Amino acid sequence: MLHLTSIPDTRAHRQTISAPVALVPTMGALHDGHLRLIEEGCRLADEVWVSIFVNPTQFGPNEDFSRYPRPIEDDLAKCASAGATVVFNPTPEAMYPPGALDTQVDVPAISGAFEGENRPGHFHGVCRVCLKLFNICRPTFACFGQKDYQQLRIIEALVADLNLPIAIQRVPTVREPDGLAMSSRNRYLDDAQRRHALGLSKALDLARHLIETEGEPDPAAVEQAMRDTIAAHHLAPDYAAIRHPDTLAPLAMIDRPVVALVAGRLGSVRLLDNALIGG
Ligand code: AMP
Question: How far apart are CA 37 and CA 40, in angstroms?
């Protein structure tokens, strides 16, 4: 496995490869969810490139950029044993050299609500870094987790609308045995918060039950039930919504498959989760 940090070296190496490349963009602190993405990459292509970059432009001023975990040696070992052929691990200065102008790419129709509302500027940063990674690594496939559903939809829309020659591969959310979605931020949780964090997946289970088993047609009723579950687990809810799975637009009635999106805070830790229901 090659560990590359410079953009010119990465481009030069890419030029030597004619086989399809599957890219797995990450911010590191790899867990089994990321490894599932790498596995998917291995299924799609012989060349599996993992980018590890804690992207400063997608963090707000009061967010956890500086304390975000960066266990690079561990991450490299995990990538190697998962079958990655390249790890691209640039510095912030290489990605954003002094004087770089702040190009903005956006999919405003789906980036304004939820994470976009809670984290102003977040999706500008995500879109910018993904386009940069796509241009540097020139992947045929790029694997993204359903765990970050709004991000996944934004990247799918960006690729479709800008005619990027990349197939986006959706990877289902990998969960702990009790249902908590794996996340690099779970390591911030103390024991009590770890128990409370289950409120998010429990809220999604309840939404699935109400829609698929009880046939509840009213999105507002399901949203209220999800909010109650989140609050009962001592999470401060950010949102609990039933939406159209492609446009993330509100629905008057649940008469088609939907996505349920939830986010909440435990102290300074913000967690999110989602589920596709009724498919
Ligand atoms: P991150 O390192 O958090 O930026 O995530 C990198 C990629 O891994 C994104 O496409 C995430 O959606 C995906 N990912 C994160 N957690 C999970 C999970 N529990 N299951 C599946 N994919 C995940």
Answer: 5
Does the structural domain 184-274 have CATH classification 3.30.70.20? Answer: no
Catalytic site positions: 34
Closest approach atom of ligand 1 to CA 143: 10
pTM: 0.98
pLDDT single digits (tens) 51-101: 999 999 999 998 989 999 999 999 999 999 999 999 999 999 999 999 999
Ordered strands of the 167-171 beta sheet: 2-4, 86-88, 47-52, 21-26, 141-145, 167-171
Domain extents for the chain?
2-171, 184-274
Ligand 1, atom 5, residue with closest C-alpha: 26
* Residue 181 CA to ligand 1 centre (angstroms): 10
CATH of domain 2-171: 3.40.50.620
Nearest atom within ligand 1 for CA of residue 34: 8
Ligand 1 midpoint to CA 245 (Å): 19
Which of 34, 68, 151 for mutating ligand 1's site (highest number of atoms within 8 Å of CB)? 34
DSSP annotation of 3 reads E
C-alpha–C-alpha distance, residues 28 and 217, integer Å: 40
